[in-house]
């Protein structure tokens, strides 16, 4: 069973930094005044004149000075207060959606986990099994990779497009983003190339190889990237994000190959207007923290987030060395 989760509701959030959802309920001024008169005369034994005097001298000026201007900070404004059942149902649904997300997705809005189904969980179970055959491991990994790539492509920018159907009817849809390229981190990232090619006809794919231990400071071993990569949206391909160091090393090298300027994070994301990292499984929380803190504009798409890293910096429960298992070199 799913453990219960706490949801906190605050009357106000003054000087609070964090992730929260703000809504404001509004009712007409005469309704507010009528409620106050009824409450103070019936429940508190005050006379109407004293209630009106307090309202005119303190309550309404305070509302105009502090409550009314705070509307511009509200994510949602609910007219008619508690009687607006449709708006309240929308808020309840929003809270339920947030509660269903992984905790890291609440911290980093640029992390996307595709919706889990029994099919996806079943494929995860199979490729994590150490006794699965190489043929089945590749088959189910390719299925998952295709789902992750398709989901990742859905986060790319698009333009509206109209076409005429065979029934001579105008259909308004969207046009695929044209200027794309993939960059696979050798060698595990190469396992994702076929899925990207199957989704994006004729896409250019570059390669980059970085030594994990730094190779005496020369971390970049090999790179072959599209010459016009600075004009394209980049999809950085890597099936497993463990510590995140390999990805954070790959991005500056990809950047430096397209411009001779000194690395500048703001210019980097101006140059590469969109960088997306489709990752199969598993992601470790440590790796997500590492990448998102250093490059908060990157979008990371994955099919599942694992628990943690062990003392050997391996993802737990994990799936072993993905590249070795996929290419059959784990013997």
Record keyword descriptors for this entry.
elongated, 7-stranded mixed beta sheet, two-stranded parallel sheet, 331 residues, Rossmann fold, 11 helices, alpha/beta, single chain
Describe this protein's structure.
By secondary structure, the chain is an alpha/beta fold. It has 2 domains: 23-100, no CATH class; 106-327, 3-Layer(aba) Sandwich (Rossmann fold), CATH 3.40.50. It has 11 helices and 13 strands. The protein has helices at 29-42, 48-67, 85-100, 103-107, 118-128, 134-153, 193-199, 245-256, 265-271, 285-294, 322-327; strands at 23-26, 76-79, 111-113, 159-164, 170-175, 180-185, 204-210, 220-224, 233-237, 275-279, 299-302, 308-309, 315-316. Strands 3-11-10-9-6-7-8 form a 7-stranded mixed beta sheet, sandwiched between helices. The longest helix is centred in the first third of the chain and has 20 residues, at 48-67. It is elongated, with a radius of gyration of 27 Å. The two termini are 39 Å apart.
In short:
The protein has 331 residues and is α/β, with parallel strands linked by helices.
Strand order of the largest sheet: 3-11-10-9-6-7-8
Radius of gyration: 27 Å
CATH fold node name of the largest domain: Rossmann fold
- Percent helix, as a range, is 25-40%
> Class by helix and strand content?
alpha/beta
Question: How many β strands by DSSP?
Answer: 13
The averaged pLDDT comes out at 75
- Tell me the quaternary state: single chain
Number of domains: 2
Terminal CA distance: 39 Å
CATH domain class name of the largest domain: Alpha Beta
Q: How many DSSP H or I helices?
A: 11
Give the low-pLDDT segments. Answer: 14-18, 258-276
User: Which architecture of the largest domain would the CATH scheme give at its second level?
Assistant: 3-Layer(aba) Sandwich
Share of β-strand residues: 15-25%
Instruction: Please summarize the sheet with the most strands.
Output: 7 strands, mixed
């Amino acid at each position: 069973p799913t453990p219960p989760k706490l949801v906190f509701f605050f009357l106000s959030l003054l000087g609070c930094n964090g992730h929260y959802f703000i809504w404001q309920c509004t009712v007409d001024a005469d309704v507010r005044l009528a409620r106050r008169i009824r409450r103070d005369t019936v429940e508190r034994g005050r006379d109407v004149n004293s209630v009106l005097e307090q309202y005119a001298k303190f309550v309404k000026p305070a509302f105009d000075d502090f409550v009314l201007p705070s509307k511009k900070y509200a994510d949602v404004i609910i007219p008619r207060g508690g009687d607006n059942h449709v708006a309240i149902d929308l808020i309840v649904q929003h809270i339920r959606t947030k509660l269903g997300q992984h905790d890291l997705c609440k911290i980093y809005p640029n992390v996307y986990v595709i919706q889990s189904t029994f099919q996806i969980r079943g494929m995860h179970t199979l490729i994590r099994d150490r006794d699965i055959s190489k043929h089945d491991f590749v088959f189910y990994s390719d299925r998952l990779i295709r789902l992750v790539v398709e989901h990742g492509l859905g986060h790319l920018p698009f333009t509206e497009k109209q076409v005429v159907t065979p029934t001579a009817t105008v259909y308004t849809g969207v046009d695929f983003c044209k200027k794309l390229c993939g960059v696979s981190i050798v060698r595990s990232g190469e396992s994702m190339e076929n899925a990207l090619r199957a989704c994006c006809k004729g896409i250019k794919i570059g390669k980059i190889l970085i030594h994990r231990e730094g190779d005496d400071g020369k971390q970049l071993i090999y790179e072959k990237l599209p010459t016009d990569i600075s004009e394209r949206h980049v999809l950085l391909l890597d099936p497993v994000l463990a510590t995140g160091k390999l990805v954070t090393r790959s991005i500056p090298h990809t950047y430096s190959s397209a411009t001779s300027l000194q690395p500048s994070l703001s210019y980097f994301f101006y140059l590469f207007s969109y960088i997306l990292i489709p990752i199969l499984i598993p992601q470790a929380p440590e790796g997500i923290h590492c990448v998102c803190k250093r490059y908060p504009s990157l979008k990371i798409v994955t099919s599942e987030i694992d628990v943690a890293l062990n003392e050997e910096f391996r993802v737990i429960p994990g799936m072993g060395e993905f590249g070795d298992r996929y290419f059959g070199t784990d013997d």
